[in-house]
Structures are given as structure tokens and as C-alpha cells.
User: What shape does this take?
Amino acid sequence: MKNKPLIFLVAGEPSGDVIAARLMAALKKETDGKVRFAGVGGTRMQAEGMESLFPIQELSIMGLFEIFPHVPKLLLRIRQTEKAARSVAADVVVTIDAPDFNFRVARRLKDSGIPVVHYVAPQVWAWRARRAEKIAKFLTHLLLLFPFEEKYFSKTGLKTSYVGHPLAEEKIVEADGPDFRAQFGIPFEDTVLAVLPGSRTSEISRHLQIFGETVSAVADRQAIQWVIIPALPALRMEIEAAASNWNIKFVIVDGSVQEEKHAALAACNAALTSSGTATLELAMLGVPMVVAYRANKITIAVARKIVRVPHIALANIVAGRRAAPEFLQEACTVRQLVPALENILLDPTARHDQIASFRDIARQLGVGGTPPSDLAARAVMQVVRDSQQNRRN
Assistant: This one.
């Protein structure tokens, strides 16, 4: 193998920038620093020593109407990325998430002889199962976040490696809940509920009133004394205005600061949360939860026809069962949420059952094992070695 293999990485959004930067650090450790980088990334990747071809912000465009005016430039960036990987004679291309962009790059590299590793598998287990067969035609290797994903790709012939979830490297389990309570004057004996209505404006508009009425009802029955709400800065004013009418003491923390958010969640006895990554964070912290979600009626109607999983919460999907109760769409009502919350707040058996399930979820995410980025680095370097061996043969 060459003394300094060139790893060409492509991240298309901030979350991918974090994952890729950790991978770069792990690759340096795996190779004793004998590695070079090129590609597309953000500030985290640049801090690890990569000069980005163009700003990552150009790829962070969401929504059909938002993306349409940018299509010509995105197509140009796809071609530019492909040509750059070829021109620098990359030993491997590692694409991180952002499949709409990265898979187009990967397809164009199919005849290049450069192996392509994709990090963060598309959720074929939830919908579009045939996509597994399609991506197997242009990917060399796939890095998986969850162990159950392997069975969806094994029959395609695509090589995979389960590495674990990036959350396992954020030291969530070390979050100091008692210190957070002391900092904000929350008595140790008081019962605290985390409320996570979502991180998008549309989620806030659909959940905030229902969550607020639920909190007020539970507070009136004296089942809780405090509420903690992680909120992104752009949504803080709206959430604070709503919470001021809930007739309960509350603390709002910056949801964009991971350490602060995790300490806040660790200080809670239970949570009322929308679905998403928050359910994994709560599971890792051992915080019993009730999951509730409402979406656009058309979106839900379509999802019910094509989505293949029996749960909406990532924590339940990983657990393989309904470890935490879920209330979707028409079931997401104050009438149903209040008794579900009181159950996990007041019933020791219900709390114990959730927490026991959460230990297994944390294990499956990689907590307590080899860091996911280290496992990913080993897999990437094995692809490089295999590729170079094949060329010699």
C-alpha cells in the first residue's frame, strides 16, 4: 500500500461534516498520520486538514421548491466532484449521508476503478426496499449505523460493516443531570418533564398546543413540577411565549448546544417528545418517554401506504418493539397523552420496563464499545488495501 493513501470525502450537510471529521481523525490514528485528504466538507473537516472544493452550504438545500432554482449549479457540482476524485487519483471515495447528491457522484465514478464507500445507509428498511439493489450496483462498501440494517443489504451482494451510531461518540451518558438541576435551582425531589416538540417550524406548529395542554393537565394533577424544553435559537421566542401559559415552572435551553441539551435531558424524570433522533438521545440517557407525532394529512396518507416499519420512533425501531408508547396523527391527543405520561411518571414497573429496553438500545448504538469512527476508519482502510491488491492482481 502506498505510504500516504488519498481519501476523498464528500459531506453534504452539517451533520455529515461532524461524522466525516471524526472519521478523518480516526483515519489519522489508524494510519499513524500517513494519510491525505481531499473532497467536499465543512468547517469540521477543514479543521482536520481538508480543503473543500466548494462551500458545503451549497448542498444544504431542503425541499422541492427550494432546490429547483439550484438544480443547474448542483449538477455542475456533481460533475466537479466526480472529476476531482478522478484527477487526484483517490484511493477511495467516502460519501457521507446526503444520498441525493452523493449517490449521483457515486454513479458517475462507477467505471473509474475507484472504490466508493458510503457512510450512513439509506433507510431502505422503512421504505423503498428496492433501493438496496440499486445502490449495490455502484457502491463498493456501506457503513451501517444499526445492526439490523445488514439483512436488508446482504442479499444484494453489497459488502457492509456495522460501525454504530455517531451519538455513541458524543458522551451523552456522561451528561450531569444533578449539576444541571443545581445550576437552575430545580430541587432534587421535584419531578421534571422534558418537552421536545420538534426542531422544524412545521413540527412546532402541529405539536406545541397539544403538548402544552398535555403538560398543563399533568401539572394540574401535580405529577410534575418543572418542564425543560430544548429549543433551537430560531424557535425559542415562539416556544417561550407558549410555555408561559402552561401554568408550570419551565427552563428553556439551547437545543443546538449538544452538551447543554444532554445535561438538561439527563435532569428529567420523563419526556414527551416528537419522533426523531431525540428518542435515541433519551434512550441513551435512560429517560422514559412518550412519543407523539402529527404531520400533514397527505404526508401521513402516503406514508401509511409505503412505510414498512411498525413504529415511528427510532428508539422503538432499534429495539424491535414498542419500548416507548407512540401516538401518531389522530391518536396524538391530550386525552391519550395525559394518562400515558402519568403512567411512566408514577408507575415504577412501566418506568423499569422502558429503562431496561433502553440499555439494549444504547448497546446497539455502540455505547461502551469501540467508537464508531474507529470502526469506520478500519473498514475504509480495508477497502483501500483490497482495492490495491486487486490492481496488483
